[in-house]
Design brief:
By secondary structure, the chain is an alpha/beta fold. The protein is built from 9 helices and 6 strands, in the order ααβααβαβαβαββαα. The chain has a 6-stranded parallel β-sheet with strand order 3-2-1-4-5-6, with helices on both faces.
Length: 192
């Protein structure tokens, strides 16, 4: 598939970026959000990817950065227009002041390649992370996932659950990956 080819073709370039970040941090956790609505009308009609819910993800990332100071949190948004919206002004300012959080405009391919783990809202990139054997934590605070496919090992119910799952991944990476194998096989129709 073309996305797989993109990821592998840029791997060497991504490794240079990762090496630069890893000088100061043990792990890189990409934080994936929903696309931010570009106007107040679309925001008001949006149930999942509205300003309040996206801002909550960024506030959680600020909390996680304090709990895990040796992890670099790389916020990878679909677009960066939210950084200009007054709704996000206070959160954006706090993020910019936080040493171990970066708001990135790098390609999603580089973000995937340099990640040790991922956290956040569901995007198709999370499936790509699973395909590449990178552990993820999906926020399922609104019960919007097929629990038959995405099991309790990667779905988090609330912030504390997310925090515990990230801690588990950081301390037990190989076990966390083994738990994702079944999900990988189901998503990508790999025969067991």
């Amino acid at each position: 598939n073309y996305k797989k080819n993109q990821i592998y073709n840029l791997k060497n370039e991504s490794l240079k970026i990762k090496k630069r970040f890893k000088k100061n941090y043990k792990n890189i956790c990409t934080v994936w959000d929903y696309p931010v609505p570009l106007n107040w009308y679309d925001n008001g009609r949006e149930k999942l990817s509205n300003y309040r819910r996206i801002n909550n993800l960024f506030i959680e990332t600020l909390k996680l950065s304090q709990i895990f100071p040796d992890v670099l949190f790389l916020i990878k948004s679909k677009n960066l227009k939210w950084t200009k919206f007054s709704y996000f002004k206070e959160t954006y300012f706090k993020i910019k002041q936080t040493k171990n959080i970066i708001i990135s405009d790098m390609s999603y391919v580089h973000a995937i390649n340099i990640s040790d783990l991922a956290y956040g809202n569901y995007t198709s990139t999370m499936d790509q992370m699973i395909f590449l054997n990178k552990p993820i934590v999906l926020r399922n605070y609104y019960n919007n996932f097929n629990k038959e496919l995405y099991d309790k090992n990667i779905l988090s119910k609330n912030f504390n659950d997310s925090c515990n799952k990230i801690l588990y991944i950081l301390n037990n990476r190989s076990k966390a990956l083994k738990k994702q194998v079944k999900i990988k096989k189901a998503i990508f129709d790999i025969k067991i």
